[in-house]
Design brief:
The protein is mainly α. The protein is built from 13 helices and two strands.
Length: 290
């Protein structure tokens, strides 16, 4: 977005922390008591020409109507409602890797620190008793949104599905999808020389002060950008196999019991097409570890 703004206006915008321009939507510190954004964020959004947020909220919890509050004609169910107030990018990652990442996250923050072992954490993750609840319910909530917003024209799309694993293997292709979705104008030279190198995990880790969340107090010098490796969660689960631990098997049984795959296929269809826009394939891949 900053590169697009620079393309159109020549204004050189920089940031010291990502939250300067893309704060957490659901954190009180970014809002005034009257409901307006705090001045610093508001001014940065004005410079950017867009309002940008990140969030962990489920799809049905997100605002989808224009600020005037007008109802969307013919749509009353927030679970599948197509938004008229903006665009949403849903970033996903394989759930076994999410378990590992979330464990290290909660174990190394002061507020609400998790103090038990990984095996216990993984079982609580599957039970949906950790902060943010069931990860499967979260995914299904967004699948409902995608079930009502599929279209081939990126300019008309309200939601875009991005997958971490795909970004690790085809970063350029995924960035181009985001550019089309947001209708951005960025030259190939800027993309190749400036943007793609800065989007890679190693580059972000070297500049971790710009991305380390400020909403909690970190312990033991913990770095939020830790490994970024695909398969790290499976490795951690396999380390815990032994004695009575059956984490990988329990994970598979949990997915089967939940009927998650059946629900995804019901909502999005059984799509066999080999396409970057096959949302069914992405949602199903999130619970596989082979």
């Amino acid at each position: 977005l900053i590169a697009d703004k620079r393309h159109w206006t020549g204004e050189d915008i920089s940031f010291s922390h990502v939250s300067d321009f893309a704060p957490f939507y659901d954190i009180d510190a970014h809002w005034e008591t009257d409901g307006d954004l705090i001045e610093g964020v508001r001014k940065n959004h004005e410079r950017l020409g867009r309002r940008v947020f990140n969030t962990h909220l489920r799809w049905e919890m997100l605002p989808k109507r224009a600020e005037a509050g007008a109802a969307v004609d013919g749509v009353e169910d927030d679970r599948t409602q197509r938004p008229e107030c903006g665009k949403f990018i849903h970033v996903t990652r394989n759930l076994i890797d999410v378990v590992a990442s979330f464990y290290h996250h909660l174990s190394n923050q002061k507020e609400g620190q998790y103090t038990d072992d990984f095996e216990t954490f993984a079982r609580e993750f599957m039970a949906g008793t950790l902060p943010f609840g069931s990860p499967l319910d979260h995914l299904v909530s967004f699948a409902r949104g995608f079930s009502n917003s599929e279209t081939r024209d990126y300019r008309d799309q309200s939601l875009l599905l991005i997958n971490y694993e795909r970004m690790t293997t085809n970063l350029r292709g995924e960035v181009l999808r985001i550019m089309r979705f947001l209708d951005l104008s960025i030259t190939d030279e800027v993309l190749e020389k400036d943007l793609l190198p800065s989007f890679r995990f190693d580059s972000m880790k070297c500049n971790s002060d710009r991305f380390q969340p400020k909403s909690v107090t970190w312990l033991n010098g913990y770095k939020f950008l830790r490994k970024g490796k695909v398969g790290d969660g499976r490795a951690l689960m396999e380390e815990n196999i032994g004695s009575d631990s059956r984490l990988i098997f329990e994970f598979d049984e949990w997915i089967q019991r939940s009927k998650y795959c059946d629900e995804i296929e019901r909502l999005l269809g059984l799509n066999q097409e080999d396409s970057e826009d096959n949302s069914t394939a992405v949602f199903l891949s999130l619970v596989r570890h082979d």
